[in-house]
Specification:
By secondary structure, the chain is of the alpha/beta class. Helix 6 crosses helix 7 and helix 7 packs parallel to helix 8. The protein contains 15 helices and 16 strands. 41% of the residues lie in helices and 18% in strands. The strands form 4 sheets. It has an 8-stranded parallel sheet. The structure holds one RNA strand of 82 nucleotides.
Length: 378
RNA sequence: GGAUGGGUUCCCGAGUGGCCAAAGGGAGCAGACUGUAAAUCUGCCGUCGCAGACUUCGAUGGUUCGAAUCCAUCCCCAUCCA
């Protein structure tokens, strides 16, 4: 599939962390990459122009949410998701698999697929691997995710095995269904490794999916409440079994420290709602750790969120002003904090890529954690 | 000058004899947030403390076993009449 070649362009001599480029029909993605999340066809509080300005190369959207509203037919009629939301760069769509997990109270899983009760109006909706593919075809995303079954933490071995095996069967169905689509060559399909927190299952899942030869691989079912060292251990366990010439996408991660640690362990792609969600709730990332901008101690702090940040918010506005906006309930507060947090992660990844290029990612990582306060982290 | 209605914890506002440190909002303070059911949610919000104790409902005095609630006087506020 020439539309989606992935090249590992450099491996850090110090750490083995890798640098790459994923070519897509809507442009190149330089990895390791952080992908802002735009579930409902918008990265909340951000315009596409602003996303371009802060250096986003690819964003995420969601099958389940867009299926419910406005519906994939409408988006197809609009010319596809890129045109509908006026975002010309690559888009990755999640399959709805995560909603199988996060909406566990209002869905039922069977072998054929999952019946959801819409969180919007309670109506019953059915999503199967085939339906998920069809919806993602209508959306026209560059990268489609297989419809998987994500498990919670903790999770017993039998349940994890069950979910993993179903994920594999569903991955095969996704692949078969996608192969028949007109867009089979212009939309890439990623498989998703599951297996909860069991080494044997994770390794098995990585192997099974590798044999199925996907364009790239999601690592799902992590960052679901487990302690970080457990997640890091899982990454180390499976990475030797992940195809070296395919992009590896750690789904739903994460915080600044998790990104650095993920890259250290061979992850190429990340996405996370954390940056934009905590931004709307009044918390900012900084290289020193979290900064709760709405706290009273910043009422008369006329410096920027972060002194050496190059984002629009930091170049023009003070902590005192942004705090005021939050206290006043003004949406500009959420917008400025979102711009900052996204730019923070995108810039962190730019710095990570530069460090790998120069064979000093180990030094970079050490300097990062020397400065970053983990005691009040996410 | 007269009539009527009022004065409740930072603000608004419920409460008309015990179940009241006093509903409910708001404001304030803090916390949570990781493939987004989130511009959301949670906690605290008289004082000291574990329990519990203590001081509060315009002021003063009274009735009562018991008062934010009843009575008296006074001080303020609002509206209306002169």
């Amino acid at each position: 599939m020439p539309n989606f070649t992935f090249e590992v362009t450099k491996t850090c001599a110090q750490t083995g962390a890798r640098l790459g480029v994923l070519h897509t029909p809507h442009g190149d993605i330089h990895t390791p990459v952080y992908m802002p999340v735009g579930t409902a066809a918008t990265v909340k509080a951000m315009t596409p122009r602003e996303l371009m300005e802060i250096g986003a190369e690819i964003i995420l959207s969601n099958t389940y949410h867009l299926h419910l509203r406005p519906g994939e037919d409408l988006i197809r009629e609009a010319g596809g998701l890129h045109q509908f939301m006026a975002w010309p760069k690559p888009i990755l769509t999640d399959s709805g698999g995560f909603q199988v997990f996060s909406l566990s109270g209002i869905r039922k899983i069977k072998e054929e697929g999952v019946t959801f009760q819409s969180h919007l109006d309670g109506s019953r909706r059915f999503i199967s691997p085939e339906v998920s593919m069809d919806i993602q075809h209508a959306l026209g995303s560059d990268i489609m995710m297989a419809f998987d079954v994500c498990t919670a933490y903790p999770c017993d071995h039998a349940t994890a095995k069950d979910a993993m095996e179903r994920t594999h069967r569903w991955a095969a169905r996704c692949k078969a269904h996608h192969a028949k689509a007109p867009s089979a060559d212009t939309q890439a399909l990623f498989g998703i490794v599951q297996g909860a927190f069991f080494n044997d299952l994770r390794i098995e899942s990585a192997k099974v999916l590798a044999d199925m030869d996907f364009i790239g691989y999601g690592i799902g079912g992590l960052s679901v409440g487990e302690p970080k060292p457990i997640m890091y251990d899982m990454l180390e366990t499976i990475m030797p079994y992940m195809p070296g010439n395919k992009p590896r996408y750690l789904m739903g991660v994460g915080s600044p420290d998790c990104l650095v640690e993920g890259v250290m362990r061979g992850v190429d792609m990340f996405d996370c709602v954390l940056a934009t969600r905590i931004a709307r709730n009044g918390t900012c990332f900084t290289r020193a750790g979290r900064l709760v901008i709405k706290n009273a101690k910043y009422a008369r702090d006329f410096g920027p969120i972060e002194e050496d940040c190059d984002c629009y918010a930091c170049r023009n506005f003070s902590r005192a002003y942004i705090r005021h906006l939050f206290k006043a309930g003004e949406i500009t507060g959420a917008r400025l904090a979102s711009i900052h947090n996204l730019r923070f992660l995108l810039r962190l990844m730019e710095d990570v890529r530069a460090a790998i290029t120069e064979d000093r990612f180990g030094d970079f990582r050490k300097a990062f954690f020397d400065k970053y306060d983990l005691s009040r982290n996410f």
